[in-house]
Amino acid sequence: MRYILLDRITALNPSGSAFGIKCVSLADDIFVDHFPGHPIMPGALILEAMAQLGGVLVEASMRERGRHDLHALLVTADKAKFRHRVRPGDRLELEAQVISVHEDGGQVKGLARVDGQLVAEAELAFAFAQVTNPKVLARRREVLNVWLTGSAEDA
């Protein structure tokens, strides 16, 4: 994954909701071109941050059912709305709420806020892919451990 857009998962309640944060920094390479002298976080990356949190949530929901071999893949983003700009120095507060989860995939409502103000929202749908490669599974565990360190229950 080229862009990891979660700095921390602060709460993970499988089959319910998840919360996370992304600290937006002028050092992020996206601001080189978006836009020089007027840096704004692209809406597509805000959507990706919500999707990364939502993917973790639907995967955790399936782990509760004994499925530890599934990886969530974003397949659709519906009803996406971008309400306010996100700029360097902002702390993007992310939330994912389960709409449904089943063997084939899941759906979440993603929300992004800055200082409590809603900046973006979308309904995100995921398909599950079975992962058996030990290197891929180990890398996924490594990223999850960083995201969850000291803040949420073990995924």
Task: Describe the protein in words.
The chain is α+β, with helices and mostly antiparallel strands and 155 residues long. The protein has a single domain (8-147), classed as Hotdog Thioesterase (Thiol Ester Dehydrase, Chain A), CATH 3.10.129.10. The protein contains 2 helices and 6 strands. Strands 1-2-4-5-6-3 form a 6-stranded antiparallel beta sheet. A hairpin with a 3-residue loop joins strand 1 (8-13) and strand 2. The protein is globular. It starts with 7 loop residues before the first strand and ends in a 7-residue tail after the last helix.
Q: Number of helical segments?
A: 2
Give the overall average pLDDT. Answer: 92
CATH superfamily, please? Hotdog Thioesterase
CATH class value? Alpha Beta
Number of strands: 6
What's the helical proportion of residues?
A: 10-25%
Poorly predicted sequence stretches spanning 5 or more consecutive residues: none
> Mind telling me the C-alpha Rg?
15 Å
The proportion of strand residues reads 35-45%
Anisotropy-based shape: globular
Distance between the termini: 19 Å
Biggest sheet: strand arrangement = 1-2-4-5-6-3
Annotated CATH topology: Thiol Ester Dehydrase, Chain A
Number of domain units? 1
